[in-house]
Amino acid sequence: LARLQLRLGDSDAAPERQTLAALGQQVPSLLDDPLLLRDWSLYQDPREAAPRLLQSSARLRQGGAAGLANSLEVVAVSRLMLFDDAAAATLARRLRRTLPQGLHAVSYPPQAWWTLAQALRATGSAQARRDALRCRVNARRWIESAQLPDGGPEARRCFRHDNPINRAVLAVDGGLTGQ
Fold it and tell me: Over pLDDT 90: what percentage of the chain?
């Protein structure tokens, strides 16, 4: 996983992907760990990853781990957006109500809200666009209220503009008002 993460988006990462797939077939119980599943799913076929993420999140939610379940479901939304916008938006709509319960610490809250916003916007309905804007407001609010170790103006500027998620969320319309 570490080598794949370093080569994210690299078309020459096929050998690492094949090794990962073989490992998953040899030791399928690895994917029983929700945090490993969360990362692993980014390199799987999204049609395989999304259902597995949703199955794991359902078990976690039943066990009282709502934050970790939310984190897995946000990743499921991102994987669903690659092949089923309607399913992604349906899940995003539900998550919009449960995300305030929290996320696992491995998740970045603005990225979670931003993912939901993008999934909702993709449906094109007026209500979905309003919901997407509410998600963006939640992401923006988190960014604006974050306490930085060095609260100086330069640190705040870097936090807001050098982080690609923060930069997208804080853009004038965030890419959410147009079609």
Answer: 56
